[in-house]
Structures are given as structure tokens and as C-alpha cells.
Design goal:
By secondary structure, this protein is α/β, with parallel strands linked by helices. The protein folds into two domains: about 25-315, Alkaline Phosphatase, subunit A; about 320-459, 2-Layer Sandwich (Arylsulfatase, C-terminal domain), CATH 3.30.1120.10. The chain contains 15 helices and 14 strands. The chain has helices at about 5-25, 55-60, 75-85, 90, 105-115, 130, 145-150, 195-220, 250-255, 280-285, 300-305, 355, 360-370, 375-380, 410-425; strands spanning about 30-35, 65-70, 115-120, 135-140, 155-160, 230-235, 255-260, 270-275, 315-320, 330-335, 335-340, 390, 435, 455-459. The strands form three sheets. The protein has an eight-stranded mixed sheet with strand order 4-3-5-1-6-7-2-8, sandwiched between helices. A four-stranded antiparallel sheet has the order 9-10-11-12, covered by helices on one side. The chain has a two-stranded antiparallel ribbon with strand order 13-14. A hairpin with an 8-residue loop joins strand 9 (about 315-320) and strand 10 (about 330-335). The N and C termini lie far apart (about 90 Å).
Length: about 450
């Protein structure tokens, strides 16, 4: 009779070895950051007019987050927040084009101590103190192969800051050209030929970004490192169109987030819970076996990546500060509702200068001068603004109907206000009266009239 005891012991030992290896092996991390890419503007997020085959395949290979949010709708503060795991007001770089202070540490610096080889490519936008915390820099995505060769057998962290689809636009951007008649025009934009042509060029840049993503993934596969690489795709803020980038509406702060990790994440997964990008840096560290520092505001998403049945956040928080025009806007969002608090209520919303120079903006201004704006289009020019905005995202996904004034919502406003105030206190946010920068762009015409970053006035 066959003696099964030695065989069973060998199988047990092999299982222990494999289990230990699985626990010890650190994943590679590849982070892909679109520049001004709206969350709706990908095939995998439901836009049938746009061509994004590589990102669609990436989403199908892993997990697509349906409700992921940024901490701010502005380029450089957003990237610094993601890398530090801190809300913008806590980094000292909450305003556009403000470099990260020297006292801040980003996730790659911690990963280097754990044996990771770290690199970044193309647009950085976080300043020299963050840049020097990486091992390696590349000008374009085609240098990724050289990075992988330099990496050797070490686990790696590689961050790609794309320049697409940031303005300005041109007709020769991509080999994939989109038809202006087929683009999706949001209700807050003017459905005019100029706007449609503007959107088509924006779509073209997203397709060029998609092609870069495809080449990066192919390079990873050619080097045999795809299986244990966590790929994360996201955007730094919303699309560069009126009432999108620079706002705390979902068009400004909701972001596409795709996680693909063949060894861990099942293909075709869709996660419906609330996610915040504040949790990405702690996730990177956790997966590398590093305990996230206490001053990071986020928490690891590793549990969600391994088990998509895990609950998400109850609330996500966002802020808007100086971006050509100064603002102090704060928001708290649940899966269904969002509360926005505006400080400078006497002024219309301050839009970024690249938006106010766009054909889409000029189309709105033309209608405004003719008193032909629709109610949805006129909201961006509203002055005075309400101090409190409240939206039911299930009934009003474009956030066009402020229900803060309805008596039946008083209890919800009180509840969300308490949550927002607790976040402000716990994260050390500054009050509106503490500091102020001058605008350098007119809030209606978009004309620049001062230096790029006006001096900060502490009250």
C-alpha cells in the first residue's frame, strides 16, 4: 500500500514555501496619470464616441472604480496630494504651480528604503524637492524599457505624468480623429460647432494618451513583469472645460481609476464603493510591507484590491484653492449626496485660465452677451453664489439643482456640515480668513492682468 505520509509532508512544506513567497514578494507599481482627463471620457466609462482601446482592455483585465475622487481639481496640488498621501492644505502646496516644500516626503522615498527602484517620466509638476526623491527620470514613455533594464531584479515604482489631454490643442495630435458631430456635449456647455470641435480635439488627445498606455503595457509584458505589476490609471483633475476642471462638482473631482494586477485582481471587476486618491500612497507602502507614517491622511486600499466586496469610504473630501483665481471651497460627498461650501460668495466662480481661453468658453460668453444662456449654462456665472450647495447625485448627476434651500434637507445639511467640520479640524485645514491671494485672471472675460502667482496675504 502506498504510504501517503511522506507525500503529504512534502506537499505541506511546498505549500508553506509558496505561502511565504507570496507574502514576501513585493509587487511592482506602475502609476499612469492623465492630465485633465474627465472621468466620463473613456470607452470603459461609457463614452461611446471616444476611442480608448488600450485603457478599455486594461479596465477589463482588472478593477474599474465607479466612484473614485480626487482631493482637489487642480494639477500640481492634486499630484502632490496623491504622492504624499495628504490633503493639499496639509502639504503647503495647495495652490497651482506651488512646488512641494522641502519638508514633505513622497511615497517613492519610503519605497526606496524598502528596496524599490523608483522612476518618473514626462510631466512632473510637483517641484524639485519631490523630483529628487526618485532614482530615475525619463522624458518620454519609450524610455520605460531602459528604466526596466536599469531596475534589474528589484521591484519598481514608476510614475508617468502624461501631458495629454491638457490644452492647447491642434488638429495633428493623433492618428485617431474624432467627429465633432459624435461627441457628447454636457448640459453646462453650449452645443455649438466651436464647442463640438473643441471636444473632438480633446478626444483626440485622450486617444494619443491611450496609445502611450498601450506601449507602456507592451514594454512591461516584453520584459516579463506584467503578472506581478499593479498598474493604476487615473487623472489629476477633470476635463479642461467650463464648470469642470477647477470645480468641486463631479466633473472636476471625480476621476477614472483602473487597477490591474493579474496575480491578485480578478478580471472584469467593477467597484462601486467610494474611493479617494488620498489612499493611494498608503496603499503603495502597505503593499511593499511598509507601515504608512502617521501623518498620511489616507488608508491602504489593499483590502479592496484583494477582496472587492470590502466596503469603501463613507465620505470623500475635496478642496479648491488658488488657480488663476483664488477660491476657498470645500466639499464632502457620500455615494448619493454632496455638500459644497463656498467662502467667496460675492464673486462668480474662478475658472482656470486655460479654460477661459478656450472656444468652449467663448461660446458661452457669446450666449451670455445675448442673454441666451440656459439655466445650466448660467450657473458658472452666478453671483452672488450660495454659501451652501447640496446635490442629490442619483437624481441630478450633473449637479444642476441645488436643493440646499428645501426645508426637508435641513437635517442632511447639518449632518454633512458636522462631517466636513470634523475633517477640517482633524486635517488642520485653514479658515478662509487666514490667507488670500489676488486673482490674476478676470473671472468672466478670462483676461490676465497680474503676475502668475500673486503674493500670499496672511490675515
Amino acid at each position: 500500500m502506498l504510504n501517503w505520509k511522506p507525500i503529504a509532508e512534502l506537499l505541506l512544506i511546498a505549500g508553506i514555501v509558496l505561502s511565504c513567497r507570496a507574502k514576501i514578494e513585493k509587487p511592482n507599481i506602475l502609476v499612469l496619470v492623465g492630465d485633465d482627463a474627465g472621468w466620463r471620457d473613456f470607452g470603459c466609462y461609457g463614452n461611446q464616441a471616444i476611442s480608448t482601446p488600450n485603457l478599455d482592455r486594461l479596465a477589463q483585465s482588472g478593477m474599474l472604480a465607479e466612484n473614485a475622487f480626487l482631493t482637489t481639481p487642480q494639477c500640481s496640488p492634486s499630484r502632490i496630494s496623491i504622492l504624499t498621501g495628504k490633503y493639499p492644505h496639509a502639504t503647503g502646496a495647495e495652490d497651482l504651480h506651488t512646488p512641494m516644500p522641502a519638508n514633505q516626503i513622497i511615497a517613492p522615498a519610503y519605497l526606496k528604503k524598502a528596496g524599490y527602484f523608483t522612476g518618473h517620466a514626462r510631466k512632473t509638476h510637483y517641484g524639485p524637492h519631490a523630483e529628487k526623491q526618485f532614482d530615475w527620470y525619463a522624458e518620454n514613455v519609450d524610455d520605460f524599457a531602459l528604466f526596466l533594464k536599469s531596475c534589474g531584479d528589484r521591484p519598481f515604482f514608476f510614475w508617468v505624468g502624461f501631458t495629454d489631454p491638457h490644452r492647447p490643442y491642434s488638429r495633428d495630435t493623433s492618428s485617431t480623429l474624432h467627429n465633432p458631430q459624435e461627441v457628447e456635449v454636457p448640459p453646462h456647455l453650449a452645443d455649438k460647432p466651436e464647442t463640438r470641435a473643441d471636444l473632438a480635439l480633446y478626444y483626440d488627445e485622450i486617444s494619443r494618451l491611450d496609445g502611450d498606455v498601450g506601449r507602456l503595457i507592451n514594454t512591461l509584458e516584453q520584459h516579463g513583469r506584467r503578472e506581478n505589476t499593479l498598474i493604476i490609471f487615473l487623472s489629476d483633475n477633470g476635463a479642461p472645460f467650463p464648470r469642470e476642471k477647477g470645480t468641486l462638482y463631479d466633473t472636476g473631482i471625480k476621476t477614472p481609476v483602473i487597477f490591474s494586477w493579474p496575480m491578485v485582481i480578478a478580471s472584469g471587476t467593477r467597484y462601486k464603493g467610494l474611493l479617494s486618491v488620498i489612499d493611494l500612497a498608503p496603499t503603495f507602502l502597505d503593499l511593499a510591507g511598509i507601515k504608512p507614517p502617521a501623518d498620511m491622511h489616507g488608508k491602504s486600499l489593499s483590502g479592496i484590491l484583494k477582496n472587492p466586496a470590502t466596503a469603501g469610504r463613507a465620505h470623500v473630501f475635496s478642496e479648491r484653492n488658488w488657480h488663476n483665481c483664488d477660491e476657498h471651497i470645500r466639499s464632502v460627498r457620500t455615494l448619493r449626496h454632496k455638500l459644497i461650501r463656498n467662502a467667496y460668495t460675492e464673486l462668480p466662480h474662478g475658472s482656470p485660465a486655460d479654460i477661459t481661453g478656450s472656444p468652449s468658453w467663448q461660446s458661452l460668453i457669446h450666449l451670455k452677451n445675448q442673454n441666451k444662456l440656459t439655466p445650466a449654462q448660467s450657473l458658472l456665472f452666478q453671483a452672488p453664489r450660495p454659501e451652501i450647495e447640496l446635490y442629490d447625485l442619483e437624481k441630478d448627476p450633473w449637479e444642476l439643482d441645488n436643493i440646499a434651500g428645501a426645508p426637508e434637507n435641513a437635517g442632511l445639511i447639518l449632518e454633512l456640515t458636522k462631517v466636513l467640520d470634523r475633517w477640517i479640524e482633524e486635517t488642520g485645514d485653514f479658515p478662509p480668513a487666514k490667507r488670500r491671494r489676488d486673482d490674476n485672471t478676470d473671472r468672466i472675460t478670462g483676461v490676465k492682468f497680474t503676475q502668475e502667482i500673486p503674493p500670499l496675504r496672511e490675515e
